Amino acid sequence: TERSVQVKLVLLGEAAVGKSSIVLRFVSNEFQPNKEPTIGAAFLTQKCRLEDRVLRYEIWDTAGQERFHSLAPMYYRNAQAAVVVYDVTKASSLEKAKTWVKELQRQANPNIVIALAGNKIDLVTPSASPSVPESEDEADDATATPGETGTSGEPESLRQVPRDEAGLLFFETSAKTGEGVVEIFTEIAKKIPID
Ligand code: GTP
Ligand code: MG
């Protein structure tokens, strides 16, 4: 019998770093070049299938504009996971991300799983073949099956230092090409305890 658990996840980060675009890629495998800024927050859900269980992410995609900062605690309170996003082409967005991580470490659930994502990596790397096929998948259950994402493929046996040694999971992503996006949610899922 398959275990299914709900996981409340919040996205935080400076305006325009690509939070909503990461969620759109994860939930619908789509990208919008001119995505409008989020007002307040948006709520989306997506399943994530691991080998031994299925998680259902309840995703709060917050607004990065400073005027919405004070709403954030409503969304990270009780969250089991957070994705803090910055833009690799904008140094100030990393500083903002660091302040979000500190705020989460002080104020959020002490067991929260935090992932840091440097997004828009497509803008700084020579264009290779997209890691996500352009063709539309008819998946409303676009699952994240380890080994089928095509982007990890790392020989685990060589690793001596875990990805989260610094207390955070870390990713570089592109919502535009899909690089690294499913991995964020799959790696977080692996860290959510089975209860
Ligand atoms: P707020 O809702 O205002 O906090 O912004 P956000 O963090 O949700 O950013 P959003 O997803 O709206 O993206 C902002 C702009 O960056 C949009 O025009 C996106 O198309 C673009 N964008 C997002 N991710 C990427 C990416 O990985 N690569 C490139 N090239 N552009 C991106
Ligand atoms: Mg947004």
Automatic annotation (TrEMBL):
Task: Look up keyword Transcription and say if it applies.
Answer: no
Looking at the record, which segments are called Disordered?
A: 125-160
Signal peptide per UniProt: none
This protein's UniProt keywords: Nucleotide-binding
Keyword Cell division recorded: no
Instruction: Give GO terms: molecular function aspect only.
Output: GTP binding; GTPase activity
What is the name attached to this protein's record? Answer: Ras-domain-containing protein
Q: Which organism is it from?
A: Polyporus arcularius HHB13444
Where is the organism placed in the taxonomic lineage, from the top?
Eukaryota, Fungi, Dikarya, Basidiomycota, Agaricomycotina
